[in-house]
Amino acid sequence: MDSLDENLNSGVETRQLKKLQMYQKLILHTLLKFKISIMVIFLVTIGVGTIFRYIQFKRHHRQFEGSVTLFYTPRASEEVKTLSINQVLGIFSRQQVFGSLIEELHLTESQRAFLKQNIEVKLLKDQNDMFVITGYGDSDEYVKLMVNTFVAIGIRSYVEYRTAELRSYLEAREQRLRELQAYQNTLIENLHALHRRYGVIHPKEEMATVKKIQNEQAAALAELNVKLADARHRFAVAERNYKAIPENVIKHRVALHEMVQALRRVTLEYDRAKLIFGERNPRYVEAQSAYEAAYNRFEAFKRDNNITEFNESMLTGIEDIVSRYQEAEIILHELEVSFASLQAEMALINEKERVLQQMIPEHERIELLIASVNKNISLLVEELSRVRSNIAHVPGDITVNEHVVNPKALPMFPVKALILIFIAGIFVSGIYATVMVTYDIIYGKFGGIEEAGFNKGFFETVGIIPHEKADFTQEQRDIVNNQLFYSFILRLKDTRTLFSCSLNGSFLSSVLFDEQFTKAKRNTILVRLISYKDEAEICGKMQKIGDFYYSDNGNSGVDYREKSTKKDIEYLHGFSSGDGRGYGYGYGFAFVPVRNLSVLEPDEVTKLCNIVEELKQHYQLVRIAREKPFDASCLMVRQLHDICDGTLLYIGKNQTPRRVLRRVLNLHDDKHKTYAIITGITDIEKVIAGDYIQ
Prior knowledge:
alpha/beta
């Protein structure tokens, strides 16, 4: 199955390639056929173009040309972009420039009408900073004056436009500068107000000082805490010792000390008297009395001063205890006062820190804004300086290379015009050739043996039949006809059935060719298809064998049962019907009536196939034709082409439309040979020489 598909696809591709090659050759043949008219059209177009260019040049206002090269070198600036070269060209091409030129030169109406066409402003090729202004006119003086004046006006227009643009930008930037300066003053006033509100001018320096003081206070506080703890400890010890002695003892320590001393002395005197003197001794009594008096006085003093607990040991070191207590109390008090003072100072410093913390962010924000504004103002001032410099440089942005001095005359036929005329000739002749070739291929007629050579992949040309009105002698016609007939017979070989199809509208050609078979006495029969309505008229006197009417060698109605006819014919051995009717030997006719001469019905196709199979048993060649010439649109052409082994086409030179021939050639395949006889050839010498035969 795959091999079959590949073979079918290959066959289709080969057929399409053959068609393409055929049409390529046909197009070339048609071009050669119309070569004279194509050349005439080409030359006529060239001539018309030349005349048109001559008249146009004589009437045209472009006879002289002058040009000026301008250099565009603007000063670069980051703030205001320079105009591109295309924008500069646009400024030079504005209507105002042409209006100013008209006013300055006082141009006429015709000069005004073509002014824009006569001035060209374009960029110099491969250059981005150079452009050319070219002027055209009917005189050299006019061109020189026009171009030089146009350049001056254009430069002036550019200077005005660019200066106005830069000044507009400058004013906008100056306005911006004034706004920034006003904003700067506002920020400075806000900064002063902030200073007045917080009473601080340099908050950062103040904050640094506060931090330093806070560090010192923290160190002093730590040291004071240590001293205070030690003082409190000392005070606690001194207080404990101090409170161990009754308060009144401490209060009357001096009097108690004196009384204790006095009591000790009298006690000592009393003890000595007791040792030395008797109880009745006056000195003893005196000593006793002194002791009792001192003792009573001491007791009375204690009662008077509410001294209930007293011991002489209490008076030992009492001054030191009191002095230590008082000293510790004083030191502790001083340290506590210092601690309270330090805390107050720290509270003040912390409050100041809080105020500074509130002030610093706002102060920094204002300072940043002021710094930014100052920077922008500085940049704006520099920018304004550059813009002013650019404004001063604007007149030098465009420089003229050289003014027009000697305009040159334009040629009547420049290379461009010649090329256009030549291209127009090729274009018009190409269109003409395309139209003629397309028309000739689609609607034209077959062109003869030369064109048959292009179709050799689809049919084989076996000969020609000269036109009946051609200047041929009878001898020449006999030579041509015999040459054609035997050339065709030699090519048939194993072909048993042949479909004869006349496509040139002339039935005479096929009839003349049929006579050759009759003269040659070939064992062949011609099967003609006729309509039922013509059956009685054509076959009325013929004998009917099966489904067809038979005539032997053109003799209609021959009855083979008559003995007198036997001497005129030779019977075909091996065949004889039961009623005595049979086929003759040589050239015969078989007429098959059908319903429609355009298409065979299915039963008629079967009948015709059976007739052909029967005739093939008695004749070497069975030819099938129709009583009238075929129209290629008939379906019968396809049917007879499929039934027969080969097809013989009668094609008339300049008579058969190509579209008709194409329909028949579409039936071509490798299983059916297709032959062609070309009719209507009139060139005697080529026909006799055999140049028309492949």
